[in-house]
Design a protein that fits this description.
The complex is a heterodimer of chains A (171) and B (305). With 171 residues, chain A is mainly alpha-helical. Helix content of chain A is 68%, strand content 0%. Chain A has one domain: Arp2/3 complex 21 kDa subunit ARPC3 (Orthogonal Bundle), CATH 1.10.1760. Chain A has six helices and no strands. Classes of the chains: A mainly alpha (171), B alpha+beta (305).
C-alpha cells in the first residue's frame, strides 16, 4: 500500500465530495454519489484486511468532517465496520466483475448509511424527512458510478492484490 | 532494536479504531465541530473554487447570465421595498398608538452589519446551512440573524473563533416566528429540508394567497423590526385538519448563487463593551462598503443613541 498516494487521494476525494459533487446531484432530494463510500469499497476489495481496516476508518472520519450537520462519529464507525466486514468477506467471495462491485457498493451504502442514521439518532440528532430516500438514492447512484471510478482508482493506486489463492503451478 | 516494527493484530487495530469512533460520537459537539470548522477554514480556497465551478452543461450563456443578474437585482430591490413597506406599516401603527416609547426610526439604523463570505453552502438536501468566515472574534454570537439579498435567511447556530455555521430557515431544525402583512397573528415557520419551509396551525379564516410576503418576526435584541424572509409558494388545506392552512414558504433569496451575507448585530455598542479590547477589529473599507450595500446605500453603521 502506498500511503502517500492514499493521503493525496483522500484529500482530493474529500474536496470533491465537499464542494463539487452537488453539481451532479439529481432529484428533488438532491441525491449525489458518495465518493468516499466508493473509495471505502475500493480499498476494502483491493487491499489486505489490515489496510482495509485503517483506510475504512480514515475515510469514515473524513466523511464525518465533510458531512453537514456537525455530528462526528457515525460515519467513522459505520464506514469502519462495513469496510472491515467487506474486506473479510472478500477473502471468501471474490469481487472482480463490474456488477459485483456495483452490488458491493450498493449494499455497503445501504448498510453504512443506515447505521450512521441510527447512530446519529442514538447521539440525539434527528434524521430529517426523506433521510432514507436520500440514503437509497445515494447508494444506487454510487453503485452505478463506482465501478467506473474503480478503473481510475486502479490506475492511480496501482495496488497489487495479495489475496490468498491457488499458486500458479496448481492452476 | 530501533528498527523493530510494532506489530498490532487486526482485532486490536479494529478495536482501537472503533473505540476512537465511539469517543468521537459521544464527545461534545462544541469539541468535534472544531474539526469541521478547521477543515472549512484550511481548505477555504479549493472549496470555494469547487462551489463556483459548475458543469459545462449547466453553464449559462452570457446573455442569460446578464438576465439572471438583472433578475437578482430586481429581487433585491423588491425585497428592499418589502422591508420598507413593513417599516412604514409599523410606523403607522406606532403613530396611531401614540405610545411615545423610544424606538428606532428605521429597522437597522443602529445595527452593525458584519459582512461575511460563504465558505460552504448546503441549501438543499438534509441539512440546510452555510459556513461563513466570521466568528466570535468578529462579535458574533448564537441566535443572531443573517441576511442575504436584503432578506433574512437564517440564524447563527454554531460558533468558532473565525467561523460560524448559519442555520437556514429551510433547515429541519429551524423554527422561527413569522407574520404576514395584514394578518394580526403570529405563526411559526419550520424548515422542510428541501429548500423551503412550512407554516402550519393557521386557521383557514385568514385569507392567504400565493405570493404573499412572509416576514420574520422581530425579536428584541436580535431583530428590532420584522423583515422579509420568504413568500408563500403554496397554500392548501391541511390534509389532517381541513380547518387549517398548510403553507409552503419559499425563500426570496437564491442561496446557491449567494457569495456573501451579513450578520445583524443589533446592539454593537453593548457587544463591544463586553468583548475584550484585543478581540475588537476595526471595520475595513470593504466591510464598510459591504455594510452600505446591505443597508441599501445608507451611510455606515452608527451607534444607537
Amino acid at each position: 500500500m502506498r500511503w502517500a498516494r492514499f493521503a493525496v487521494l483522500v484529500l482530493i476525494t474529500t474536496l470533491l465530495q465537499a464542494s463539487w459533487v452537488d453539481e451532479i446531484a439529481v432529484t428533488r432530494f438532491h441525491v449525489a454519489p458518495d465518493l468516499l463510500l466508493i473509495t471505502v469499497v475500493f480499498f476494502a476489495i483491493r487491499c489486505s484486511v489490515s489496510e482495509a481496516i485503517i483506510t475504512s476508518f480514515v475515510l469514515g472520519f473524513v466523511a464525518d468532517i465533510v458531512a453537514t450537520g456537525f455530528l462526528m462519529g457515525p460515519r467513522t464507525i459505520s464506514f469502519g465496520l462495513f469496510g472491515t466486514g467487506l474486506a473479510y468477506m472478500h477473502r471468501v467471495i471474490t469481487i472482480r466483475k463490474i456488477p459485483h462491485e456495483a452490488l458491493a457498493i450498493l449494499i455497503v451504502g445501504f448498510g453504512a448509511g443506515g447505521l450512521a442514521i441510527l447512530l446519529a439518532l442514538l447521539a440525539g440528532r434527528s434524521a430529517g424527512p426523506g433521510s432514507f430516500n436520500v440514503l437509497a438514492g445515494t447508494s444506487i447512484y454510487s453503485g452505478a458510478v463506482g465501478p467506473f471510478l474503480f478503473l481510475l482508482l486502479d490506475r492511480l493506486m496501482r495496488i497489487r492484490s495479495r489475496r490468498r489463492g491457488p499458486p500458479p503451478a496448481a492452476r | 532494536m530501533a528498527g523493530k516494527r510494532i506489530r498490532v493484530s487486526r482485532r486490536m487495530l479494529f478495536a482501537w479504531l472503533m473505540l476512537a469512533g465511539l469517543i468521537l460520537l459521544f464527545s461534545p459537539q462544541a469539541v468535534t465541530s472544531r474539526f469541521q470548522f478547521a477543515f472549512a477554514r484550511f481548505f477555504r480556497w479549493p472549496l470555494s473554487i469547487g462551489r463556483n465551478v459548475p458543469l459545462s452543461a449547466r453553464t449559462e450563456l452570457p446573455l442569460s447570465r446578464q438576465v439572471g443578474d438583472f433578475s437578482r437585482k430586481e429581487t433585491q430591490y423588491q425585497n428592499y421595498i418589502a422591508n420598507l413597506e413593513e417599516e412604514l406599516r409599523r410606523k403607522n401603527v406606532l403613530i396611531q398608538q401614540l405610545t411615545g416609547l423610544r424606538t428606532r426610526l428605521r429597522g437597522l439604523e443602529g445595527a452593525k452589519l458584519v459582512p461575511a463570505d460563504i465558505i460552504t453552502a448546503s441549501a438543499e438536501g438534509q441539512r440546510n446551512e452555510l459556513i461563513i468566515n466570521r466568528g466570535s472574534d468578529d462579535g458574533l454570537s448564537k441566535g443572531l440573524f443573517v441576511i442575504g439579498d436584503n432578506s433574512v435567511i437564517g440564524t447563527i447556530a454554531d460558533l468558532a473563533a473565525r467561523t460560524a455555521r448559519v442555520r437556514l430557515f429551510s433547515d429541519i431544525s429551524s423554527v422561527v416566528g413569522v407574520n404576514m402583512p395584514g394578518l394580526e397573528i403570529n405563526m411559526l415557520m419550520q424548515g422542510n429540508s428541501d429548500g423551503s419551509a412550512k407554516i402550519k396551525l393557521v386557521p383557514v379564516k385568514h385569507k392567504i394567497k400565493v405570493g404573499d410576503t412572509v416576514l420574520v418576526h422581530s425579536k428584541p435584541g436580535y431583530l428590532d423590526v420584522s423583515m422579509i424572509g420568504g413568500t408563500v409558494q403554496q397554500c392548501t388545506r391541511d390534509d389532517k385538519n381541513p380547518s387549517l392552512w398548510d403553507i409552503t414558504v419559499k425563500p426570496v433569496c437564491d442561496i446557491a448563487s449567494l457569495n456573501t451575507v451579513a450578520v445583524i448585530v443589533m446592539n454593537p455598542a453593548s457587544l463591544a463593551s463586553i468583548r475584550p479590547a484585543s478581540a475588537r477589529r476595526p471595520a475595513s473599507t470593504s466591510e464598510a462598503e459591504a455594510s452600505r450595500v446591505e443597508t441599501g446605500g445608507r451611510s455606515g453603521p452608527s451607534a444607537t443613541p
